[in-house]
């Protein structure tokens, strides 16, 4: 397999750090299959690009995944599941015209200080869509109203490693009190179980970045470091 290393650029999560990426550099008919392999060693997808952080001076980014059959919700997560039980979810594989207006509003009202502001349709398409695999979307509805979308990859690595990969979630800011970010992860865990998959990948936990701390709140979880997955449960010393 061929890989390339990007130039250094300012880190989106740790303002005092520089970021570099290790990027899968081949383009062939086996992209989706390669992705299903590479996600197991800490890689992730953004649009067409398959990458992993490769920063010489920093090792803060760690890939996190949830073993769905072992996962049990915490007390607060159980309360959240009960509070949001009237909402309805469904997994689809076609982009709908209602997605971008919801995404635009979410970025503008919730993340105007982030790297994805200002939003644009081109940015959205380049981030989400992919020619070599089908992008899936877990939709959430309050009645007939679309309130959240979790962009989700369905990764069929093999019978032991099939997974969902949570790419990004955006939601109606009016529903902020419903903790839809956390709830949509819970829904992806349930969907992975329904499909018979074993993991939900959450992307990177970034040590020192408060915005990424929620990824350690789904127990047990596995974290990739030193080229292997380490399991952390309620009785483990959770890495910080």
In short:
One of its GO terms (molecular function) is leucyl-tRNA--protein transferase activity. This protein is 22% helix and 32% strand. With 240 residues, it is of the alpha+beta class.
Can you walk through the features of this model?
The protein is of the alpha+beta class and 240 residues long. Helix content is 22%, strand content 32%. The protein contains 5 helices and 14 strands. The chain has helices spanning 31-38, 75-83, 99-110, 121-128, 180-195, and strands at residues 3-5, 9-10, 18-19, 21-24, 44-46, 49-53, 61-67, 88-92, 136-142, 145-155, 163-171, 199-206, 221-225, 228-232. The mean pLDDT is 93.
Poorly predicted sequence stretches spanning 5 or more consecutive residues: none
Q: From the alpha carbons, calculate the radius of gyration and give it in angstroms.
A: 17 Å
Structural class: alpha+beta
Largest sheet: 8 strands, mixed
Described by the principal axes of the CA atoms, the overall outline is globular
User: Which range best describes the helical content: under 10%, 10-25%, 25-40%, 40-55%, 55-70% or over 70%?
Assistant: 10-25%
| SSE series | EEEEHEEEHEHHEEEHEEE
Number of separate helices: 5
Counting DSSP E segments of at least 2 residues, the number of strands comes to 14
- For the biggest β-sheet, the strand order reads 8-9-10-11-12-7-13-14
What percentage of the residues does DSSP assign to strands (E)? 25-35%
Measured between the Cα atoms of the first and last residue, the distance is 33 Å
Mean pLDDT: 93
